[in-house]
C-alpha cells in the first residue's frame, strides 16, 4: 500500500518482482521456448467457469458449449459473458492466446491452436462436481466430432474420492482411452488434497512453481499447490509449470478494463503523467473533479494503489497466479507436441513430459512430480518419436 506521507516518487511502478529490469517477461522468455511449433491444426478444449471473446483468441474459437444447465447449448460464438468469464479467458489465453494486444509478446504456449470452450458454471455461479460432470459428459460424446486432442481442466470437485467408479474418474478414463490427453490443475491450498477429476490416475495433473520473473534458477521457489495421490495411489502432480506472475489479458468491458485504459500506460512513466487524467479519465476512475484537483501526492497514491490492486502489466494485460494457469502451460505444450507428431498417444505424451522435466532442487518430490516441464525438449522428443 502506498501512503501519502512521503514525496511523490519519480515514476509509477508495477509490483511484480524485478520490475527494475524493465518489464514482466513473456512466458517464452521465462521458459526458454524457441520451438517454431504453434499448435496449428490441433484442437484444444477448455472446461472452465466461463469465457469471453478477445482479440487474443476470438479468431480461433471453433465452438462454444454452454453446459451450465442440463440443457446444453452449442454455439459458434460465446453467448454469455459475465464475472465468471474472467477465469476461462485467463486460462485459455495462457494456453492458447496469440498475444494480439501485445504484438505477440504475451502470447500463450500454442497460439495457433483451435479452441472449444465448455462453460460449466451453474446459474447460481457455483462450480460443483455435477457442473463439471456435465462438461465432461458432453466432451466424452462429442470429442471425435470436433477432433479434440487435449482438454484443459482448471476447475476442481468437492471432496477427495478413492472410488474408481466416481463419474468424473470414469469420464477421464474414457477420454484417455479414446486418445484425448486430459490435463488438470492440482489446486492451490498447499495441502495433501487431490480431488476429482484430478484424482483420476490417467490425468496429467499440474502443480506450480514461482520463478519470481527471473531467468536465474537460483531465484525459483515452489508454489502452494496441492499434492497427494490419485485414487489408485499414483502420486500427483505429474509435473509443475509456472504458477506466479503469469501474463493474461484483462477481461474487456469490466471496471478493471476501464481503469486500466487510463492507468496502465502510466506504469514506468513519470508521475507527472497523471495530469492528463484531470481532463479526460477521471470519470472511468470514478473520481470527482474535486478529487483529481487535490494535491498531486494524493492522486499519485490513489492511482499507484490501483495499479497494484489490479496487478497491471500495462493497459491490456495483468499478471495472474495459480495452478489454474500452470495447467494450460502444459496443455499448450501437449498441443505443440501433437503438431510435431500427431501419432502420439496419451501415454507417449505423459512419458515425454515426465522424462524431459527437470526437478527443482528446493521443492519436495511429492509436490513437483517429475519437475518443471521443458517445452522445447518435449517437442523435440515428440519429433524424434516419429
Index terms:
nine-stranded mixed beta sheet; alpha/beta; 386 residues; 11 helices
State the separation between the terminal residues, measured CA to CA. Answer: 54 Å
Mean pLDDT: 93
Shape: globular
Structural class: alpha/beta
Helix content: 25-40%
Strand content: 5-15%
What is the makeup of the main sheet? 9 strands, mixed
Can you tell me about this structure?
- This protein has 386 residues and is α/β, with parallel strands linked by helices.
- Helix content is 29%, strand content 15%.
- The chain has helices at residues 27-31, 85-96, 129-142, 167-177, 255-263, 289-292, 296-309, 323-340, 346-356, 365-368, 375-384; strands at residues 43-48, 61-66, 73-75, 114-119, 148-153, 181-185, 204-210, 221-222, 228-229, 235-236, 239-242, 246-249, 317-320.
- Strands 1, 2, 3, 4, 5, 6, 7, 8 and 11 form a 9-stranded mixed beta sheet that branches.
- A hairpin with a 5-residue loop joins strand 9 (228-229) and strand 10.
- Helix 2 (85-96) packs parallel to helix 8, helix 8 (323-340) packs parallel to helix 11 and helix 9 crosses helix 11.
- The protein is globular, with a radius of gyration of 21 Å.
- The mean pLDDT is 93.
Topology:
Elements: H1 27-31, E1 43-48, E2 61-66, E3 73-75, H2 85-96, E4 114-119, H3 129-142, E5 148-153, H4 167-177, E6 181-185, E7 204-210, E8 221-222, E9 228-229, E10 235-236, E11 239-242, E12 246-249, H5 255-263, H6 289-292, H7 296-309, E13 317-320, H8 323-340, H9 346-356, H10 365-368, H11 375-384
Parallel strand pairs: 1-4, 1-5, 2-4, 5-6, 6-7, 7-11
Antiparallel strand pairs: 2-3, 7-8, 9-10, 12-13
Amino acid at each position: 500500500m502506498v501512503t501519502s506521507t512521503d514525496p511523490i516518487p519519480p515514476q509509477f511502478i508495477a509490483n511484480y518482482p524485478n520490475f527494475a529490469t524493465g518489464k514482466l517477461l513473456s512466458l517464452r522468455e521465462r521458459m526458454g521456448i524457441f520451438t517454431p511449433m504453434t499448435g496449428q491444426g490441433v484442437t484444444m478444449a477448455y472446461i472452465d467457469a466461463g469465457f469471453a471473446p478477445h482479440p487474443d483468441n476470438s479468431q480461433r474459437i471453433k465452438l462454444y458449449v454452454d453446459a451450465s444447465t442440463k440443457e446444453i447449448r452449442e454455439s459458434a460464438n460465446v453467448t454469455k459473458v459475465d464475472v465468471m468469464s474472467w477465469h476461462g479467458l485467463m486460462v485459455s489465453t495462457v494456453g492458447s492466446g496469440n498475444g494480439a494486444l501485445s504484438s505477440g509478446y504475451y502470447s500463450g504456449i500454442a497460439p495457433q491452436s483451435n479452441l472449444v470452450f465448455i462453460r460449466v458454471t451453474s446459474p447460481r455461479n457455483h462450480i460443483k462436481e455435477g457442473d463439471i460432470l456435465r462438461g465432461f459428459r458432453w466432451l466424452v460424446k462429442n470429442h471425435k466430432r470436433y477432433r479434440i486432442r487435449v482438454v484443459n481442466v482448471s476447475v476442481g470437485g468437492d471432496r477427495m474420492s478413492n472410488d474408481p467408479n466416481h463419474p468424473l474418474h470414469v469420464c477421464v478414463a474414457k477420454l484417455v482411452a479414446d486418445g484425448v490427453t486430459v490435463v488438470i490443475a492440482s489446486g492451490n491450498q498447499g495441502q495433501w488434497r487431490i480431488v476429482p477429476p484430478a484424482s483420476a490416475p490417467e490425468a496429467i495433473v499440474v502443480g506450480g512453481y514461482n520463478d519470481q520473473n527471473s531467468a536465474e534458477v537460483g531465484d525459483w521457489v515452489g508454489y502452494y499447490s496441492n499434492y497427494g495421490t490419485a485414487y489408485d495411489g499414483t502420486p500427483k502432480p505429474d509435473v509443475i509449470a509456472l504458477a506466479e506472475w503469469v501474463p493474461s489479458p484483462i477481461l474487456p468491458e469490466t471496471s478493471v478494463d476501464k481503469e486500466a485504459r487510463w492507468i496502465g500506460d502510466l506504469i514506468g512513466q513519470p508521475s507527472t503523467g497523471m495530469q492528463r487524467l484531470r481532463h479526460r479519465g477521471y470519470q472511468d476512475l470514478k473520481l470527482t473533479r474535486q478529487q483529481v484537483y487535490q494535491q498531486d501526492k494524493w492522486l499519485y497514491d490513489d492511482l499507484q494503489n490501483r495499479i497494484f490492486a489490479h496487478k497491471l502489466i500495462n493497459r491490456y494485460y495483468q499478471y495472474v497466479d495459480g495452478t489454474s494457469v500452470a495447467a494450460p502451460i502444459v496443455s499448450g505444450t501437449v498441443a505443440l507436441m501433437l503438431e510435431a507428431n500427431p501419432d502420439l498417444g496419451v501415454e507417449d505424451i505423459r512419458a515425454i513430459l515426465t522424462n524431459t522435466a527437470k526437478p527443482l532442487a528446493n521443492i519436495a518430490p511429492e509436490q513437483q512430480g517429475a519437475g518443471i516441464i521443458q517445452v522445447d525438449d518435449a517437442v523435440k522428443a515428440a519429433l524424434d518419436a516419429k
